[in-house]
Write a structure and sequence with these properties.
- The protein is built from 28 helices and 20 strands.
- It has 774 residues and is an alpha/beta fold.
- The strands form six sheets. It has a seven-stranded parallel beta sheet with strand order 1-5-7-8-9-10-11. A five-stranded parallel beta sheet has the order 16-17-18-19-20.
- Strand 17, helix 24 and strand 18 form a beta-alpha-beta unit.
Length: 774
Amino acid sequence: MTAKPAAAAARATVYGYPRQGQNRELKKAVEGYWKGRVSADALRQTAAELRRGTWQQLAEAGVHEVPTGDFSYYDHVLDTSVMVGAVPERHRDAVRADALDGYFAMARGTQDVAPLEMTKWFDTNYHYLVPELGPDTVFTADSAKQVAEFKEALALGHTPRPVLVGPVTYLLLAKAAPGVAADFEPLTLLDRLLPVYAEVLADLRAAGAEWVQLDEPALVQDRTPAELNAAARAYRELGGLTDRPKLLVASYFGRLGEALAVLAKAPVDGLALDFTETGAGNLDDLAAAGGLPGKRLVAGVVNGRNIWINDYEKSLASLGTLLGLADHVDVSASCSLLHVPLDAKAERDIDPQIARWLAFARQKTAEIVTLAKGLASGTDAITAELAANRADLASRTDAAITRDPAVRARTAAITDADGRRSQPYAERTAAQRSHLGLPLLPTTTIGSFPQTTELRTARADLRAGRIDEAGYEERIKDEIREVLSFQENAGIDVLVHGEPERNDMVQYFAEQLTGYLATQHGWVQSYGTRYVRPPVLVGDISRPEPMTVRWTAYAQSLTDRPVKGMLTGPVTMLAWSFVRDDQPLGETARQVALALRDEVNDLEAKGTSVIQVDEPALRETLPLRAADHAAYLEWATESFRLATAGVRPDTQIHTHMCYAEFGDIVQAIDDLDADVISLEAARSHMQVARELAAHGYPREAGPGVYDIHSPRIPSTEEAAALLRKGLEAIPAERLWVNPDCGLKTRGWPETRASLENLVAAAREIRAELPTEAA
């Protein structure tokens, strides 16, 4: 059947695009600037070249309207704080002295000044810098970045659409500044913030902007009537401005729900909605609301969060329905393409059959353009593309690689007993204390130690054939010996081998499990200049042979102190991968959990008494709507227990989580039944310790006292002060002392000094404890 052409030609656009460049040029330039090897002018030049290249690629692909303002040196929420003048008092001198250095001081801190807190951007692995606001916050408009980038694109002959974080989402993402009452609600500042947004919009209009995109993803979450009223007020005021561009309010990551009616009635000129699986229900809700008469609809029908090719026929059916619900329908991805790698064509080593199934940012852009062409001109205009798409989808459905009968039989045989430890925690903990003989406030680290230039060079030399496997392994052994020697000399109680053989905490395991595919160039921004290469989950998962046992056992042979076995948990293995979309996530999680269970049992059999199974993504993957939480947490916690429950009572199971809001999953943390949990707490000033205490969490916990995402070295006094706060919530017999996260991204000098201060703080606090406790 041939689709009828749209009344007005549909156009292709995107909400945002990867920032790093084909070879991570931005990362290299920014880190070079931090080290003094790249000047500020050279950094700005690199940034301008990357923006220019992105706009040119989009335009050449057929994108009608290119986004501007989505580019960032570090984080777009931090850019918004600069745009509205929400600079914390402690950073103002640095910003006044040098705007660029002050910007990075807010992101990373300095030796004297702490950075902004960092947490996850909704349910993604992208981290944003949390705005700090209070009743005394004064907003001031600074539209320089947004106007300059708009003018850059305009001068190059493009049709730019500036992209801003919307005012409601910005305030809902913010937190009370230090010293402000914890119950302060940043949304109460809305009336103070809106005139600043009005000024920025006026500046963009004066520069020639026809449309401005205001991102409001917070509205896809559960929102109170007061919050929905605030959104209505915000867009009634901004939409009622006389000196403004047209406003496109964008939502993504889910179903708008109650907020759809609010935005549909607002005096704005268009809405952008997610019509993929994550936004299921938006189409029916839009139809029930009577559509968007007189408005533009940007339809996100291409999944911007995953890397599988689009189903053209399914998307065109949705688009055809949407034509009757708005005056004009354009085609886009479901969210910014920031969350996928740049170009699948750069992956030379992927099986050609599998490569047919993959779409990174450039391929998704081409899909958007094809769908816009089909919508505008009818399906006869894209006959060849439709045929190729059908063949590619069919080749994946029929591929033997996606199914392993032995794996499916094993998961089908799982019983409830497989997910339960043989003894309850209260009995296990006594056995573990007797077996391990640790002091009060035991010290440890999260797992990784600095990945030095020498280690990266050794890996590159191995890949290039400049050294053989034996030479590489000797280098790894040397590093493990050095890491263990340092920890013993520093006085750390539970050691780690430092993970010198590992590239990334997910990729390392994915490369050793069947069913996973690793990329060479599939970089995605996690935070700042930290990029990861999420592996691709293409088929059923199994573990052909042990993955970590050899190196952990080697490390344990060098010391009498316990050495932790280090694994990545099943939820994080999924969350930080591009998962298959042809079966429920819970089923995939069980497969990964069984593979990890084999590894945990093998570690124990080789003498490992402490095993850490990291789940930093447990909170991140929590669905955005409360109604969906229970089903997710059921399979997520089950998969962790399945991986860890097969050990003896005296084997201590640890887990780790970082940079998220934990208050609404404390029960799930309890349900993991881990013996010890370590969590981020330094930037949030021990908030998580208070949350655990309020819940009555009965197990041991290590709220971090060293923020590893900043280059600053915490003093002994600073770490001790945080420990004292921790002891207000967690008794000494259950409190551990550790950094917030792994040390992979830090240098050795700051790592040594910070950990020595951490151990000194633990000793200082031990000496302060009552004699009976100590």
